[in-house]
Write the structure tokens for this entry.
Amino acid sequence: MERSKIEKGHHPHHDIESHGHNEQTLCMKLDNSDPQWAFIRKVYAIIAMQLLLTAAVAAAVVFYRPIPHFFAKTTPGLVAYIFIIIFTILST
């Protein structure tokens, strides 16, 4: 490489994605009980719980036949279905 590119920070062994940290520094940051990491763990826990709840509701609808029958064949089921759709659209 040219000398001018190396002086400007374009070193051939420089990893752009590391933001100037080496692997050892990043491992130390992951082990740190920083409040930021605690927040990230809480967010991922909430997302995991939402995913499990969604899977449970979907499984109930698919495997328990009276639920889809209720929404497809009865008037209260149709009203509930329309309400759920409108509530979902308006809440976003």
